[in-house]
Amino acid sequence: MWQLLPSISFYLFSTKSTLGINPLRSASCENILQPNWLLVGIGFGSLLFYLQWVFGDISVVSRWASNGFPNQPLDPIPYGLLIWFGLFCGIVIINRLSIVTNRWWVSVGFLGSGLLYFSRGNVSFMSGFALSIFIGSILPLLFDKIARGLSTHIVFIANFAYIIQVIYAVWTSAYNFVPFGGT
């Protein structure tokens, strides 16, 4: 994780900041590559919602992986702890930036999310495990982008995106199942 933190260099001649350039940042090219605060905010709000929705309880992934009523779902204690272990492995894998910043790494998240939602049984649980590794690996990257960007704008947009997604989840799970709720 030490690769993500900006190196600190002190300027001996001038400590005055010009044009919004922070003198404690390492290079001027870092200011050119500022993250887009709107995209980072939407991504961070979605990540917060996903952490609360899928990984908020220890048994959500193991219960989603069940085949139905006659078949017993996976027990939450050993298998839920395996999901949290996947989140921890994702945070540890950040030391391999060549893996995490690869464009194909996003496909692990897409496949994990899709197979967790649309399949059943062990395939669904293993895709939830892969999704937990992916989510854990992008957490430090997003925190780094927030620290480098316009933090107030990013947090405001993240809260807005989170609230919109919570309202959507409440609408689809509660109000569409009551009489006249879907009209």
From TrEMBL:
Residues 35-181 form the PGAP2IP second transmembrane domain. Coiled coil: none annotated. Keywords: Membrane, Transmembrane, Transmembrane helix. The chain crosses the membrane at residues 37-56, 76-95, 102-119, 125-143, 150-171. This is PGAP2IP second transmembrane domain-containing protein. The lineage of its organism: Eukaryota, Metazoa, Spiralia, Gnathifera, Rotifera.
